[in-house]
Structures are given as C-alpha cells and as structure tokens.
C-alpha cells in the first residue's frame, strides 16, 4: 500500500488538489482545512460537517497528526507550563507555555534531539534522533491551545533542535502558521533561533519573511565561541555576522542576539566591550540569558551583580539590551531538561 500523506503538513492548495483528485468538491478542502487549523480538531471524527464516507476516505489516504501531552508541569512561580508530547513513533518533544502582559507565548521544538553540541544545552546531550514534520511543529501550538483553551499570540522556535537544520519543514511550518485560513499568527510575532548555519540564514533572508531571526551568539571571539559551540568550527564569527547583516538588508527585520551568560566564561567587562562593538555595527537587540545550570555540564550562571554590570556596560555603549526573565525555573524550564529526565526514567 502507498504510504499515507501527512495531511496537516499540506498547504491549502495541496490539500485542495488532493481532495479534487479524490473526486471531492473544492469547498470540502476549505472545511477540512478549517477543522485542522482554526477549530484545532483532534481527529477526523471531530469534523462534524464532514460525512462518515469522506472521513473514511481521508483516514485511508492521510495520517492526522494530533499530539497529546504525556506530562505537563506548571510553575508555582509564574504559571509557566512545560509540556512533554509523545509523537506517533514514541519519541517525545517538549514545548513551553508562557504568559506575558502582551499575550500567550509558546516555545516549540523543531527536532527530536539536536546535533549541534552546544556545551551549555541539555537538548544536545543525546544527539539528533530526527527532524520534526511541519505538522508536528504546528500541533505543539495547537495542543497547547486545546489544553489551555487560550489563543497563542507569539511563537518562538527555540526549543529542542536547531530550526535551520530542519530548513524545508521549518519554512512550510512558518507559512502554515501565518496562513489567514489557519491561526494566522503574524510573522512579526514569530521568532526563529539559530546557532549560526550561515547558508540557511541566507536562504531564510531570501524568503523575505517578516519573522525575527535570533542568533545564538554567546561569545564575542571565534576562539571562545568554538569552546561553547562546535558550529563555530564550521562558520567563523565574521561569516555569521555578515549573514545577520544580509538578513536585515533583505527583510528590514532587526536581529536578536541571544547571549547566555556563563559565570567566568563569557561575562567579563572585556566580553561586554567586544559585544558592544559587534552590536554597534548591526541593527540588533541583545537578549542576555542567565544560563540554566545542567548537571551534565560544569557551567554556572553569572552572579546577579555581574549580569547587572554587563547589561549596564552595553547600555552605556548605546546597545539595546534586555535580560531574559527567568520563567519556569522550578519545572525544568531550560530546553531539553524535561525530555532528558523522561528518557532517563523510561
């Protein structure tokens, strides 16, 4: 039997063509698409204005991605919720729900595991298992909406995985998420993180989307960056920064530099001065992240006074800077921690 098609990963045009090919009228595509992407139906059975016969035909031809939480942790500190979802092949991925004054933000994973090897991240400890499909990325958001009954307004692709290592699926996901027939989340409310895969940063720039690109910078010299991030052995800092400048040139969107402050490693006054110099040459915003300690690594978070001094030095140099609010610290809030604990206990 032919392999089934992943229905939730199809664009509206592709779904319409597939249903016409099955002998269905075009309006059926609009109905099915709405059930998937607006009403967030959990299965074909929930599509109440679709006949039993058509549901049967759809089930024969398509798979229907619907994630259910294996575990949900809720922070007593700030209401952040961390979800662990089981995929159809029994792999698990995690997502985070965060409430801000501007709305609900969800941070999703783009891969099962990660092969980038960043030294301070739990996501990469077991390597890469596989890429997520567009539907598996989407349904992390849909499942959280189904669970909480709340509309998601901001999406961050910054959970487990390197999004630009799953480029083609990522771009389909972004277009589905932004589609006016679906959740229609504004591209300006979507952030995609990368550790610096230069060719795909440039490809993304050429898509001319209006999303925010966040670069995991974390160090101000090639030598220091190589110690923290193996990807720096492949692409130099000058290449990565040139790709950031190209992204801004093509899209007009300000770059975000993510900078994890690791005590005694990248948080000195000299680091702050070098970061100021890098930032002054680009239209960017620096997001300082107090690193989440993980037991498998010996990196520690910078002291609060050091974080404040680092921020102050950047501000004195006229760099736009924020310190990321720590959310969900009491519930394995950092990327990869909950999934790793689940795997260890399985």
Offer a quick outline of the entry.
The protein has 346 residues and is of the alpha/beta class. The protein is built from eleven helices and 14 strands.
For the termini, the CA-CA separation is: 34 Å
What is the spatial order of strands in the main beta sheet? 3-4-5-6-9-10-11-12-13-14
| Class inferred from helices and paired strands | alpha/beta
Radius of gyration: 21 Å
Could you give a short account of the major beta sheet?
10 strands, mixed
Form type: globular
Helix residue percentage? 25-40%
Tally the beta strands: 14
Please provide a written account of the structure:
The protein has 346 residues and is of the alpha/beta class. It is 36% helix and 20% strand. It has eleven helices and 14 strands. The chain has helices spanning 12-21, 26-37, 52-61, 134-148, 167-178, 198-207, 222-228, 237-251, 269-280, 304-316, 337-345; strands at residues 5-6, 62-63, 68-74, 81-86, 92-100, 103-108, 111-113, 128-131, 154-157, 190-194, 212-216, 255-261, 284-290, 321-323. α1 (12-21) packs across α2, α6 runs parallel beside α8 and α9 runs parallel beside α10 (304-316). The longest helix is centred in the middle third of the chain and has 15 residues, at 134-148. The model has no long low-confidence stretch (mean pLDDT 92).
Strand and helix layout:
Elements: E1 5-6, H1 12-21, H2 26-37, H3 52-61, E2 62-63, E3 68-74, E4 81-86, E5 92-100, E6 103-108, E7 111-113, E8 128-131, H4 134-148, E9 154-157, H5 167-178, E10 190-194, H6 198-207, E11 212-216, H7 222-228, H8 237-251, E12 255-261, H9 269-280, E13 284-290, H10 304-316, E14 321-323, H11 337-345
Helix pairs in contact: 1-2, 4-5, 6-8, 9-10
